[in-house]
Amino acid sequence: MATTARGLDDRGFIEREGSLSRIQPDFRPVVSAARDSLLAAFGPRMTSAYLYGSVPRGTARPGRSDLDLLLALRDEPTDEDRAEAKALADVLDKDFAQIDGVGLIILSRTQVLSDLERHDLGWFVACLCTPLLGEDLAEYLPRYRPDSLLARETNGDLRLFLPRWRERIARGDDPRTLDRLISRHLVRTGFTLVMPRWNGWTSDLTQMAEVFGTYYPQRADAMRQAARAAYEPMGTPHTLRAYTEDLGPWLAAEYEAVHGVKAPRP
C-alpha cells in the first residue's frame, strides 16, 4: 500500500515506521551485537525482540543517539530478567561509541497482547517497533487510525507524571537528563492532542511541535522550545519549572478535556 506524507496508508491506517534496511552503516555493528546478546541472554524465554526510535528510522546521529530495544518474554519478567537486561544494555553502551545510551524495555508477550494495552503497548509494537528477533506480535493486533481513542490510551495520563517529575527535580537528578526526558514526553503529548484533527502520524519531534502549534498558536513557542530541548537539553531550573508548573499542567487539563483519561493500570 502507498504511504502518505502523514504516515498513513491509502486506507487511513498508521503505517509501521522503521525497517532494518534503513539502519545506517555506523549502527549496523551495534544492532548485530544487540541481536547476539539478546539471544545469548534470553534464548528460548524470548518470544520477540524489536528496535524502535531513530536507529530503525535511519535518522540516528553517531555519538548522540541512543539504541532503543523492546523485548517480549514468554512469561512475566522477573527481577533477575530485568537485572540481566540492564547489564546487557550497559555493556552495549560501553562497547559502542556510536550510541549514547541503551534503553531496553522488557515485558511479557501476554501484556503486549492484552485488551488493556491494545491501544498503548500494542499500538507501539505494531506501529513504532521494527522486528529484530522472533515472532512479530503485530500479526495479533489490529490496524490503528490516528483517532481520539488512540490519543487517550497513549498519552492520556500526563497528569500522573507531573508529581514524579517534580520529585526528581527536587531530588537533584541530572537536569539535562530530566530536560530531555520531560521535553520529549510533552512534545509527544502535545502532538497526540491534535493528532486526530491533523489525521496523521509522525515521530519527528520538530514536526510534532509544528503540527501542535497550528492548533494552539498561543502555546506554539513553548512547544517548539521543548522540541529543541529534546535534542539539545540545557536543564536550566527555569526550563524545568516551566515544564512542570505551566506547560505540563495546562497540557494535562486540555488533554483530559479533549480526549478523556487513559484507562488506569493495575
From TrEMBL:
InterPro entries: NT_sf, Polymerase_NTP_transf_dom. Pfam families: NTP_transf_2. Signal peptide: none annotated. It comes from the Bacteria. Gene3D superfamilies: Beta Polymerase, domain 2. Residues 46-86 form the Polymerase nucleotidyl transferase domain. This is Nucleotidyltransferase domain-containing protein. It comes from Streptomyces aureus.
